[in-house]
User: What shape does this take?
Amino acid sequence: MNIDSNFFWYPALLFPAMPILLLVFSNKYTALAMLIRKLHVLAQDDSINYLSAERIKILSERLLLLRWMQTFSSVSFLFNLITIFCVFVGLYNFALNFFIISVVFLILAIILFIIEAQHSHYALTLHIKDLEEYSENKIKSLIRKEQL
Assistant: This one.
């Protein structure tokens, strides 16, 4: 494999982006975990009137996607570090292979991020529909009261 003289900069430029990506994924995980814990407490107290199976499924899928996003980005970060080490010790062919693996895992993590964002958007859309229905029902009940 042919490696140009600037190869060292490719993993070095990618290096600072990965911890930021891990931080974003960790924050999403923390927010989702807090939501699930809150729903769990509300369900045990019978404070939840309605929580559909569809919403529980969405939460479960998002949690699974987040786990794999964190895993793939962590593995990508690890292979990026190995790439930098291999370049440092002069193992350029290994470095190129590890860099390719690093980029592939990063691509997988970002694809999962896009899928998770779509699930998140769908979940929020369900909440908005509920709010619209609640608002319409509230207005209808007010109109009925005024008619009586």
Summary: The longest helix spans residues 92-147. The mean pLDDT is 82.
